[in-house]
Structure prediction request, 288 residues.
Amino acid sequence: MSAVPEAPRTADAPVFDRPVFIVSSPRSGSARLFDALAGAPEVFTVGKQAHRLIESIPSLDVRQRGFDSNRLDAGDATAHVVGELRRVLREHARDRDGAAPGSGPFRLLDKTPKNALRIPFLAEAFPEAHFLYYHRDPREVLAQMLLAWHSGQYRTYMGLPGWPHRYWALLLTPGWRELADRSIVEIVVAQWKVALQILLDDLEALPAHRWRVVRHADLVDNPSGEIARLCLALDYRWDRPLDGGLARQPDPASADDAAVIRGYAAELQRLWPGVQPLAERAAKFAGG
Prediction:
């Protein structure tokens, strides 16, 4: 695919210059990519609070939407909403040194897990935007999602109306109410399938020049090469050595985490035939 096209520069051009949104299924490890690219000069982020900023706009607050899901589509990108979203993102954007953008267009980079369900909304709100799909082996992702649910450390919603459990973890996918009587493994598998199906469908609906793929395995195996490739494609400058932390393999699972996964392994194996077609589609989409 070709490099990200230059946004038109007119007197009334938006202040966002080719923003980049990293999208992935939950717990894919895309924070590694975000942290690396955020170190490029002239790149601005809002840290880890983009989902709060999006949902600070009343019509985008899930509570005002009947807790339907975190899904947003192009119809949600009204002129008022887009204006508010651009304003709050600009107000909170900072570069690697903590400086705010100047008065002209600036390069925004964002990674928010819920954005897996919001690609049409973001594409409409930011017609100059580019999307990076971060692909990881579903077996690894499902294991990380199970750990997130089991740990209770990723509680997105407490006391969710109609949900019989203490909390809902990670992003709120369409159809979540139908999972009320399911096991934790069934919930996680359904959540992953819904999120990734929507993500892939939405990316395929965009012109090919608006998105590209980053594979987790490639980033782990060759971080310097992958970051260099992406900086060239995204028109990011790079003026410092790649952080050594990115080049390290992910920390191995703790004994406790490994025991948790072993406890779920049999049921996950039983459910795998329902996962495999989408896993194969995602691998093909990612060029695997």
